[in-house]
């Protein structure tokens, strides 16, 4: 078992995204998530430092900095895909939905 200081050093060695995710997990003062961080850092042995860093970057990007999210990202290979941008979203989100109305027409009585 590794302590908190070792986990912080190891995460910093892997990369800035991994370090940020570990700091978020350790920032919870109610629950010490040492086991989750240890499990997260073990993914570097199973996959690689680069894949773990990419998975942590993706988890941070989508606002899900936790063990389960990183595990799913690595298992599904989502760390190899680029993060979606606004241009890849459906026209419903970029041009308005079928039932959207112009506010100028709604406010006229």
Number of strands: 0
- Which sequence of SSEs, written as H and E, runs from N to C? HHHHHHH
The biggest beta sheet is recorded as: none
Number of domains: 1
Low-confidence stretches: none
How would you describe the shape?
elongated
| Residue share in β-strands | under 5%
Quick check: average pLDDT? 84
Distance N terminus to C terminus? Answer: 69 Å
Portion of residues within helices? 55-70%
Alpha-beta classification: mainly alpha
Radius of gyration: 19 Å
Number of helices: 7
Question: Could you characterize the architecture of this molecule?
Answer:
There is one protein chain. The model has no long low-confidence stretch (mean pLDDT 84). This protein has helices at residues 4-14, 16-26, 34-46, 49-61, 67-76, 91-94, 103-106. It has one domain (4-83). The chain has 109 residues and is mainly α. The termini are far apart. The longest helix is centred in the middle third of the chain and has 13 residues, at 34-46. It has seven helices and no strands. It is elongated, with a radius of gyration of 19 Å.
Describe the structure concisely:
The chain is mainly alpha-helical and 109 residues long.
Search tags:
109 residues, mainly alpha, 7 helices
Topology:
Elements: H1 4-14, H2 16-26, H3 34-46, H4 49-61, H5 67-76, H6 91-94, H7 103-106
Helix pairs in contact: 1-2, 1-3, 2-4, 3-4, 4-5
């Amino acid at each position: 078992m590794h302590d908190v200081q070792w986990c912080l050093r190891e995460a910093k060695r892997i990369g800035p995204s991994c370090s940020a995710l570990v700091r978020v997990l350790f920032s919870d003062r109610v629950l010490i998530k040492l086991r989750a961080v240890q499990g997260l850092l073990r993914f570097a042995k199973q996959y690689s430092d680069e894949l773990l860093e990419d998975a942590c970057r993706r988890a941070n990007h989508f606002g899900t900095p936790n063990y389960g999210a990183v595990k799913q990202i690595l298992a599904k290979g989502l760390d190899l895909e680029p993060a979606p941008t606004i241009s890849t979203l459906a026209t419903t989100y970029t041009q308005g939905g079928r039932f959207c109305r112009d506010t100028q027409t709604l406010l006229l009585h």
